[in-house]
Each structure stands twice: as structure tokens, then as C-alpha cells.
Write a structure and sequence with these properties.
Blueprint (H helix, E strand, L loop, with lengths): L2 E6 L3 H8 L5 E5 L9 H15 L6 E5 L8 H8 L6 E4 L5 H17 L8 E5 L4 H5 L11 E5 L3 H7 L13 H17 L2 E4 L8 H14 L3 E4 L5 H7 L4 H16 L5 E4 L2 E4 H23 L1
Parallel strand pairs: 1-2, 1-8, 2-3, 3-4, 4-5, 5-6, 6-7, 7-8
Antiparallel strand pairs: 9-10
Helix pairs in contact: 2-3, 10-11
């Protein structure tokens, strides 16, 4: 999952554009981008869209449902699970207990729709409320359904009363940098993908590219998008370069040829076990990126 593009479920035009965007995942949205009086229509459209496109070459489909506190989650799942989306994006999660809560619901809906138990994955949006920040440590263990963790700034800013999320230089202010950091380390603890949040100024391609490169540098493996134009930038930034892959293959090969020691030398430079681990992770990302390219 490099690129994850939000598309409102009640817009046929935007759903169609999403298919042609090159995104690895379409986040079919039933939550923030859908007005309250359009929820029922959006559920029907989401289910019909995913069902129609399920057997064709396509991105993966995750559905962002309404959060567990709204009382709308069961209606969302009841409408879309028959379409067999690959996953559910859980907004405003307050910790791993909410993931378990959703997992229990999914088990019921899977059984009702003849879906293999545990097949539907969960992407948790873990920082949209203060409770989510305090609960970051609850993601300390892998969960069989959890595919990734991501974060958001806008809902969090509304909850804590922050007027803006970034300073005059375009950098996130302290509380939002904390949310970003907690997401990254929680994803590492849970052994799942770390997905960076959206960049709302979709006309600022240079700023967006810089933020993608910074996120990849820091350990994120993908980023959410709000506009199709952002997708190619994400895919480029989060696809390991040929040079990086070649070096990582050389590192792995050197350790194997040396009998898996603690340290090896390549062209006069020493590489130890952390370098090997980083190389293996990058090669896994490169393999996943290639799978994403062939899937779309």
C-alpha cells in the first residue's frame, strides 16, 4: 500500500476517476465526505461500485465507515460487506480495543456473506482524537486483521481546539508532530504498514512531493491522497529506486556468502545487522510495490 486515494462513495464521477488514478488502494468514503442525508445513498453506491469492479483488474478497495460512536457502523457494514471489500478504514479509533470491536463485527458480517473468516483487513486511523494518542501503546502486538496504522490532523485539531495544524513555514506544530511520530512507532510495534496522512493543498505539487520524501525517509511506507494528481507523486516517492534495491541485494548477498556474521565489508564500508534488517525491509517494500503495479 503506497498510495491510498479517498473517493466519496456518493460520486460516480470521482469513483470512476479513482479507478484510473493508479492508486494502490481506493478508500471509498462513507464518512466525512458524505453529507448526513446522503449516507444511505452512498452505502448503496459503494456496494454496487465495488461489486461491479471486483472481478476486473483494479486497485484494492477499503471502505471508510462511520466511527463506532456514531451508531452508523453496522449500517455501513451491512451494506458494503456483501461486495467483499479488501478492508475497512476505521476512523477515530481510540486504541486497539476499537480494532477488536470492529473485528468482532466483521466476523459476523463475513459469516453472513460467505466470506472467509478473517479475510477483511482493518486500517486504523488512530490519532483523530485525544484518546487515540494516549492509546498508541495498545498497538504493541500484531493483530491478524490489522494491515496498517495511519493518522489524521484535521479532526484532532477540531477536538483540541487548535486553529491551525501547521506553522507559518508549513511545518506541523508540536501536537501533530507527536501524532505522526506515535503512528510510526505504533505501526512498527504492531508490525504493520505506517501510512502518512493527507496533504490538503493538492495544487502544491512541490510541497506535496517534499512531504512524501520526508515521510519515506522517516519510515512511512505509503501516504493517503485526496486528489488523483497526488497519486503518481506518492507512488514515485514510496517505490524504492533501482539503485537502492541493488545496494540492498548486495548487502543481503554479502551476509549470506559470509555465513550470516555480525558485520560485513562492502567496498570499504562496514555493514552490521541493522543495515541488513533495513535492506530486507526495503526489498520487501520493492516486492510489494511491484505487486501493486501489476494489480492495478
Amino acid at each position: 500500500m503506497r498510495s491510498l486515494l479517498f473517493v466519496p462513495a456518493d460520486s460516480e464521477r470521482k469513483l470512476a476517476k479513482g479507478l484510473d488514478s493508479g492508486a494502490d488502494v481506493l478508500l471509498v468514503d462513507l464518512e466525512d465526505s458524505v453529507a448526513p442525508d446522503r449516507k444511505a445513498v452512498a452505502r448503496e453506491m459503494a456496494a454496487a461500485f465495488i461489486t461491479k469492479k471486483r472481478e476486473t483488474a483494479r486497485p484494492a478497495f477499503y471502505v471508510r465507515v462511520n466511527d463506532l460512536s456514531t451508531g452508523l457502523t453496522d449500517d455501513d457494514l451491512g451494506a458494503v460487506m456483501a461486495a467483499r471489500p479488501e478492508g475497512i478504514l476505521l476512523p477515530k479509533a481510540s486504541g486497539a480495543t476499537d480494532v477488536e470491536h470492529l473485528a468482532a463485527k466483521l466476523r459476523v458480517f463475513e459469516a453472513e456473506n460467505g466470506i472467509e473468516d478473517g479475510k477483511t483487513r482493518i486500517l486504523s486511523l488512530m490519532t483523530e482524537n485525544a484518546a487515540g494518542l494516549f492509546s498508541a501503546a495498545t498497538y504493541r502486538e500484531p493483530h491478524p486483521r490489522l494491515s496498517g496504522l495511519t493518522w489524521g490532523a484535521e479532526d484532532l485539531s477540531a477536538e483540541i481546539g487548535a486553529r491551525v495544524t501547521r506553522d507559518a513555514n508549513g511545518r506541523y506544530t508540536d501536537v501533530f508532530r507527536l501524532a505522526r511520530t506515535l503512528t510510526l512507532v505504533a505501526a512498527s510495534a504492531a508490525q504493520v504498514a505506517a501510512i502518512d496522512t493527507v496533504f490538503v493543498d493538492f495544487r502544491d505539487a512541490d510541497g506535496f512531493r517534499a512531504e512524501c520524501l520526508e515521510a519515506e525517509r522517516d519510515g512511512f511506507t505509503g501516504k493517503m491522497a485526496i486528489h488523483p494528481a497526488q497519486v503518481p507523486i506518492i507512488n514515485e516517492a514510496f517505490t524504492p529506486s533501482g539503485e537502492a534495491v541493488a545496494l540492498c541485494l548486495e548487502i543481503v548477498d554479502a551476509f549470506e556468502r559470509a555465513g550470516d556474521p555480525g558485520v560485513v565489508a562492502i567496498d570499504g564500508r562496514m555493514y552490521d545487522r541493522p543495515h541488513l534488517k533495513r535492506a530486507e525491509r526495503l526489498l520487501a517494500r520493492a516486492k510489494a510495490a511491484e505487486a501493486d503495479r501489476t494489480q492495478v
